[in-house]
Amino acid sequence: MIYEDYEIFTPGPVKMSKEILEIGSKQTPYFRNKEFSNVLLSCEKDLLELLNAPKNSRVIFLTASGTAGLESVIMNLFTKNDNAIVINGGGFGQRFVDISESYNINYKEEIVKNSNLLNISETINAKGFNTFIVNAHETSVGHLYDLDAIGKFCKENKLLNIVDAISMFVTDEIDMQKQNIDTVILSSQKGLGLPPGLTMVVLNEKAISRVQTINSHYFNFKNYLSDGVRGQTPYTPCVTIILQLEAKLKQIIKDGGIEVSIQKAKELASYFRKQIKDLPFKEYTPFMPNAMTTLTPTNDNSASDIVNILENDYKIMVCPNGGELKDKIFRVSHMGDMQKSDIDNLVNALNKI
Amino acid sequence: MIYEDYEIFTPGPVKMSKEILEIGSKQTPYFRNKEFSNVLLSCEKDLLELLNAPKNSRVIFLTASGTAGLESVIMNLFTKNDNAIVINGGGFGQRFVDISESYNINYKEEIVKNSNLLNISETINAKGFNTFIVNAHETSVGHLYDLDAIGKFCKENKLLNIVDAISMFVTDEIDMQKQNIDTVILSSQKGLGLPPGLTMVVLNEKAISRVQTINSHYFNFKNYLSDGVRGQTPYTPCVTIILQLEAKLKQIIKDGGIEVSIQKAKELASYFRKQIKDLPFKEYTPFMPNAMTTLTPTNDNSASDIVNILENDYKIMVCPNGGELKDKIFRVSHMGDMQKSDIDNLVNALNKI
User: Fold this and answer.
1) Percent of chain B at pLDDT above 70?
2) Are B167 and B44 in contact (CB under 8 A)?
């Protein structure tokens, strides 16, 4: 298999734990029965607990990757009378803009640079809008927005708050009640440390009341909500990944809950950032999440060359960027089953380069 | 894990081979690089070979379940000037009808009972239509249509021939050139014996020329076709299942190709059907595929009770039906990594019941 003995520091896929891999090595069970329903219901309950979701919130389990989460939310929650402020701070913000454009929803794009939106009330005018869309961690550059400030802003301006938390759930704080979040989009191959293929959309009561009747079958939230009551999905789900999700959520809760998980990611990120302090890199943004560190070489080295040397000479995969950032930055994920020893290996390699 | 030590005879998920499970136990590699592109290109090449696809055919790899394949084909290949004959012989035919209805395409539904469409030229009038849609194996009851006759009919009437081959690929014959098929829909968790989560749409040149510009991002064939040239997908694919697909396709080719695979399934199906000849069951339809056997109890036993006894007393999962067929039929799959010894276990249990 390709890259079988490589260490992986990319922001999805991420390193998975032995327990998760063991489930991947087992036969996929039949799923149209009570036993699998219980698994799905348990996943829903645990996800809502970890997000501190308000009562009567629900989870939609889509067999699909993250973009399907963004797109299905736009498809299901908007009528011609709704309109959204869409935050665009990079590639994934741009994707939300593109999808909004394709579906012809009313939106205004807010391009954000060098800000984590802490001062959002002073910089963005919400007049005439009823929805707010943001990807909490703009993964293309490693930029985390301030969900506390955004939540306060959405509450004051009565905006439905839609948060793509794909690259920050379980490594950085997200709390639906405290941060006034109505919709959360999650994927399997990030902080949860599972294989790619599962995307989850979490809706509170306010968001559920916005769900429309739409043409789409595969992304029809009404059907998912209705079948989900008995722990089923309208179409064959990615059963194995859902079994892995069940195990992962139980493990997080057993280990002390979301705070412990976030604390662990924070320590790993700090550890890495300290270890490379004397190397010729600077942090690309002051608003980094625990999930990831984005580095810029401070000497003449090309970021892209460093990525290639790590891969070819050290069997270590960090994440390159494309386009104009190709030579300027590379990204190091702290998501998944990461240990200090993994970071030591990476730091040793960086020291040698 | 649920059903860890059960034998599985459901028509998806199916029993997987050791080699496939071993890949499931490995870290998911990063995929935005040449090495993974080569994997995807190899999958495309091998799939096209096994389908005997004409030159310049292409494969779209969707991280999604089978219904997304049906729906995306309807979304991408139809304009207001196109119209389709949709075969409906059960639950999955009905799904194609429902999707056609939702997208407001011009179609006529042909309800088919007690026929494998061998005499299609005499029974269906194609005048005024340009597209034909059929699910080759109507899995809800285990009914296989005659793809040779359908292909001839489509050629004579200049119909674009769209075949959902989800539950018959690699167990029953499908040949794009010989059977004049323009579009094939496949899924991972059936004959290929992989976990659920991957759906493939195969298009020949004629079908590619029908691909429209559409609003959808996640199901936008134009983007998949364009990124696919370099072995990539627009959004994070289900990397692990694709690596499993690569291994499976190479194995089929190494073992002698699609004919050998079909022959093996045929022998297993015959073996099972012979073994149960003296038991109080009859075959539900004379048009059974190699992929599956559908049985009706000939005494007073309820099919649903038999399914439950097999599960509870023998740790064997066969497939129940719902609705009015609940007590009348149950289904036994021969897809996946099935051996005669597996069938012996099931037959022994049926003998005891």
Assistant:
1) 100
2) no
Question: In whole angstroms, what separates CA A194 from the centre of its chain?
Answer: 12
Q: How many CA atoms lie within 13 A of A157 on its CB side?
A: 23
Instruction: Note whether A71 contacts B28, CB cutoff 8 Å.
Output: no
CA angle A45–B62–A239, rounded 5-degree value:
35
Find the DSSP H helices in A27-107: 34-50, 66-77, 91-102
Burial of residue A21, with CB atoms counted within 10 A of its CB: 0-12 exposed, 13-18 middle, 19 or more buried:
middle
Burial B214-236 (b: 16+ CB within 10 A, else e): bebbbbbbebbbebbeebbbbbb
Minimal Cβ distance to B28: which of A66, A196, A238: A196
Rounded-to-integer distance, Cα A182 and Cα A159, Å = 9
> Cβ separation of A196 and B64 shorter than 8 Å?
no
Sort residue B283 into left (φ over 0), alpha (ψ -120 to 50) or beta. beta
- Spatial CA neighbour of A233 closest among A65, A41, A20, A27: A41
End-to-end CA distance of chain B: 27
The DSSP annotation for B72-105 comes to HHHHHH--TT-EEEEEESSHHHHHHHHHHHHTT-
A308 touches chain B (CB under 8 A): no
- Tokens matching residue B45: 């090449």
Instruction: Tell me the three state secondary structure of residue B131.
Output: strand
B230's CB contacts (< 8 A; 6+ apart) are B37
Query: Which of B24, B236, B320 is nearest residue A189 as measured by Cβ atoms?
Result: B236
For the record, the structure tokens of B211 come out as 């691909």
What number is the average pLDDT over the span B326-337?
A: 97
Residue A91 contacts B where some CB pair is shorter than 8 Å = no
Chain B interface includes A63 (CB < 8 A): yes
- Among B47, B23, B56, B59, smallest CA distance to B252 is for B47
Burial class (CB in 10 A: 0-12, 13-18, 19+), A274: exposed
Strands A160-164 and A131-135: parallel
Q: Per-residue pLDDT tens for A80-117?
A: 999 999 999 999 999 999 999 999 999 999 999 999 99
With contacts defined as CB-CB under 8 Å, which chain A residues touch B188? none
* CB-CB neighbors (< 8 A) of A195 in chain B: 28, 238-241
Which residue type occupies B112? V
Residues in A touching B66 (Cβ below 8 Å): 235-236
Joined together, the tokens standing for residue A102 give 């394709």
Q: What is the pLDDT of residues B132-175, one digit of tens each?
A: 999 999 999 999 999 999 999 999 999 999 999 999 999 999 99
Report yes or no: A183 and A203 within 8 Å, Cβ to Cβ: yes
The amino acid occupying position B319 is: C
Q: What is the pTM for the complete model shown? A: 0.98
Measured between CB atoms, does A101 come within 8 Å of chain B? no
DSSP-derived letter for residue B325 is G
